[in-house]
Amino acid sequence: MQAVVAERSEIERELNQAVGNEQQLRNQLDAVKIQLQLLSKMLPLADLLDDEELIERAEICREQLAEAEEDEQFVRQYGNYIVQLEPIASSLVMIQAVLKNWKQNTNRRKQTQKALQQKVFALSDVMQRRMHFSYEDASGRGRLPV
Q1: HSE (side-chain half, CA atoms, 13 Å) at 144
Q2: DSSP structure string for 11-56
Q3: pLDDT tens-digit profile of 55-110?
Q4: Which residues pair with 143 in a beta bridge?
């Protein structure tokens, strides 16, 4: 009788162990099913993983993100100064336009002045040379009036 009780205990222990193993295998099966479902959802996107352009675009996006984060840090750090300088910046743009206009006017006036100086020089040269030439009247009466 003890042998039967011992054998029964052994069988119950093995049965409990088999039930535990079965439950563990069912849990693993459920986990594998979930993973297979996720893989099934990702399968249409698998071609994208091979796409080298996607990798390059992702790298470009990472670089842009890094730049944007640096810009954000800059704005956080110097935002108050930027707000204070904005009115000055618009004034500087206006001043720049006025300066450009002034330079154009100055250049135009310099060109006009240069042309006038050339004319004055030419006239003074003619006036100086006129004295050296003696033009006589065809009748021989002397110089022509200047």
Answers
A1: 9
A2: HHHHHHHHHHHHHHHHHHHHHHHHHHHHHHHHGGGHHHHH-HHHHH
A3: 788 899 999 999 999 999 998 998 888 888 888 888 888 888 899 999 999 999 99
A4: 136
C-alpha to C-alpha distance for 15 and 116, rounded to whole angstroms? 120
What is the residue type of 142? G
Distance CA(120)–CA(101), nearest Å, equals 28
pLDDT digit string (tens) for 10-41? 999 999 999 999 999 999 999 999 999 998 88
- Indicate the pTM of the whole model: 0.34
Determine the Cα–Cα distance for residues 143 and 46; give it in Å rounded to an integer.
108
| Of residues 103, 18, 37, the one with CA closest to residue 10 | 18
Closest by Cα among 88, 90, 70 to 78: 70
CA-closest candidate to residue 145, choices 135, 107, 21, 28: 135
Burial 125-136 (b: 16+ CB within 10 A, else e): eeeeeeeeeeee
